[in-house]
Amino acid sequence: MRLAQLVAQCKARLAEAGIADAAFDARMLVLSLLGLETKDLLIKGDQEIAAADVARIEGAIRRRLAREPVHRILGEREFRNLRLKLSPGTLEPRPDTEVLVEALLPLGQEIAQRVSSPRLLDLGTGTGAIALALLHELPQFTGLGVDISTDALETAKVNADLNGMGQRFTTLESWWFEHVTGRFDIIVSNPPYIETGVIPQLEPEVRMFDPHLALDGGKDGLDAYRNIASAAGDHLEHGGIIAVEIGYDQKQTVTAIFISCGYTLECAVRDYGGNDRVLVFVRKSDDSATV
Ligand code: GLN
């Protein structure tokens, strides 16, 4: 079978099964598994594909037909300019979370100008995506990634090493701040924020393959924010910031939680779809930061 023919056939099978992005998924799976690039589809479309490769691709297509997301099948995905391994204990990083990283870059640069050896803390680090993307672009920082999943912590560490940040990133098993010591200039989190009752309605790609620990925010979806806001004061440096990703309808409720714990909303940022996605908080005054 030839390359172009193989891609077309895979696309047709995925489309027939109702997979929304059949063309993209077919191209991504076939090209990635063959180590080829998009342009190869144009210049090598006639290339004959070895039977063993066709069989590997067949296995991947079957997994996609069972609704496993493309990047879980491939075992990795890009996040900003990093390549990150995925594992069963890690949420697949979303493009929307890149908005959180982007929002923090200017604030992190400002902190790096006035603080020597600035530190960041990523709560529920998963693949390490947020912490590592920030460390990559804020070279003055070191970071701590916290997670309750040991599988996630192992993956985050592997990702730090793979992306050349093994020396600047450590991990800690902890339920939010429980085992965290010390203070940080940036505290960041993309916590679980889906209401428990909504999880059965999520897309099968999310519901069946993202770890529920990383999705389930409790009855009203806000458990993690309450945890984070109530304990962050002991771990935030003077002039530090806390930034969280939120669900599209949680701007008011999450802001109210942080306000009740002595923070003010510094800025709110929308995602690529125009939904509220990122909130950045600061302490009301430097005095209260020491409380
Ligand atoms: N953004 C994810 C989703 O839409 C949820 C991730 C989270 O709960 N932090 O499925």
What features would you describe in this structure?
There is one protein chain. The chain has 12 helices and 9 strands. With 291 residues, the chain is an alpha/beta fold. α1 (3-16) packs across α2 (22-34), α1 (3-16) packs parallel to α4 and α6 (95-114) packs across α7 (129-137). β3, α7 (129-137) and β4 form a beta-alpha-beta unit. The mean pLDDT is 96. The strands form 2 sheets. The chain has a 7-stranded mixed sheet with strand order 5-4-3-6-7-9-8, sandwiched between helices. It has 2 domains: 3-66; 78-289, Rossmann fold (3-Layer(aba) Sandwich), CATH 3.40.50.150. It has helices at residues 3-16, 22-34, 38-43, 51-65, 70-74, 95-114, 129-137, 150-162, 204-207, 223-231, 251-260, 286-289, and strands at 76-79, 82-85, 119-123, 142-147, 169-173, 184-189, 236-245, 263-270, 276-283. Bound molecules: glutamine. Residues 114-195 form the Methyltransferase small domain. Keywords: Methyltransferase, S-adenosyl-L-methionine, Transferase. S-adenosyl-L-methionine binds at residues 124-128, 147, 176, 190. Its EC number is 2.1.1.297. Methylates the class 1 translation termination release factors RF1/PrfA and RF2/PrfB on the glutamine residue of the universally conserved GGQ motif.
